[in-house]
Amino acid sequence: MRAKAGTDLTTGSIPRHIVTFSLPMIAGGLLHTAYSFINAIWVGQYLGTRALAAVTVSFPVVFTVIGIALGITLASNIVVSQRFGAKRFDELRRVVDASMVLSYGLGIGLTALGELFTPFILRAMDTPPEVFDEAVGYLRIYLLSIPLSFGMIAMRSMLQGMGDSRTPLLFQLASVVLMTVLDPILIFGHFGLPALGLNGTAWATLFAQFVVLIALKVHLHRRRSPIAPSWPRRGHLGAEVGHILRIGIPASIQQSLASLGMVMVTGIVNGFGEISTAAFGAASRIDQIAILPAINFGMAISTLTGQNLGAGHLGRVREIFTWGCIFSGAITLVISAVSVIFPEALLRVFISDPVVIEHGVAYLHIVGSCYIFFSLMFVSNGVINGAGGTMVTTLISLISLWIFRVPVAYVLSRGMNSELGIWYAISLSFIVSMVVSMAYYFAGRWKRAVGEKAAAAEKAKPEPDPAKVFANEVGEA
């Protein structure tokens, strides 16, 4: 059912909704990953192992910053889906204004901090000296695109909250095509432009994000979409900003914890030298594809849960969870099998150094066999997030990454005197996160929280005026 330029996910077949809503999101993720792969090919095959290592040590910093945007926009997605499911469109408009103010404000502030502290952060990560200067230059240029990325992520999340996953896909396709065309032009200096080397990929990202962001805003205004950004009205900000932050701060902490965990793990990997860092970077590209369906199914499940809870259809959530496990688990198992059986062929796409490939194969044999556990965790986390329980999923990340992965990676790698200890720690953390998340889901505490909110909202409603009720009944008679 179409409504207000979105899709009503509170009625109809749940498996059909999951598939039709998730597929454009997965396709968008594949497009982004495809660009990441193309970028890695340019860097790894034509600029060398050192350039690939520079990108590898830079990306955890970018992911940490982007993680804050993903947390705030996850809150926007949850609130928009609940408002849309409840058909409260005036409140939806206020959510849009608050979300855009938060997204751009945080993007600009974090970019300024990143530009200032980039060298200190990379030194703290034990970045190899031979790649340090290149990594600093690349990261400082890339960070300039962060406010634009925040704006794009916010609008994508709100569109998805209304059940529209196709529009973000089309504009993501435009962005990827533009970056793919610009990469070789700016890296190698075609058409009279200077050859920028590794920094050319960062400038390509900045330019493409700017063009596509403007195009998406124009498109939404022409369609008169409820989430078309406009100059925010001050009366729309106070309460909604607070509501988004209450959900978004834990989600941002969760995303940042994950990214900071990667920073710490990358720092431990860096301690074993340039070869290990490059191998980790190349194998991590395979990780991106392996967990991509799980991430997008989790986001879809969050939106479906939010809309159905907003409409009061608590009973449909169990079916959402079951079908999410079936779809996400099946796809991840296939990808996991390919990663474990053909690791060398996959790694040769990004790097040709046989020593780096040897280290990357060991990573995929160990980590690739455990992708399924991470996949199922995203399903239960999707339900918990859709119910507004972002604090719970933040605690799950804290347990998995900081209480388990990082300390175990350090201890095992030092005990084994090899990066293999890090690979084992990553695999075991997948299992830990799934067990904790599933335990919370099956305990049903998220349902009690939803019930308490619904009861509180019902209690807050004013008592009906008996005289008005009597007058209405007489009128109907």
UniProtKB/TrEMBL annotation:
Keyword Zinc appears in the UniProt entry: no
Q: Note the topology in the membrane.
A: Multi-pass membrane protein
Q: Name one GO biological process term.
A: monoatomic ion transport
Q: Which UniProt keywords apply?
A: Antiport, Cell membrane, Ion transport, Membrane, Transmembrane, Transmembrane helix, Transport
| Any single Pfam family the record assigns to this protein | MatE
Does Protease appear among the keywords? no
Tell me a Gene Ontology molecular-function term this record carries.
antiporter activity
Transmembrane annotation, as ranges:
21-42, 54-80, 101-121, 141-159, 171-191, 197-216, 320-342, 362-384, 391-410, 422-443
Cellular location(s)? Cell membrane
- What Gene Ontology terms describe where this protein resides (cellular component)? plasma membrane
| Database matches in PANTHER family | FMN_FAD EXPORTER YEEO-RELATED (PTHR43298:SF2), MULTIDRUG RESISTANCE PROTEIN NORM-RELATED (PTHR43298)
Protein name, per record: Multidrug-efflux transporter
**Gene source species:** Chondromyces crocatus
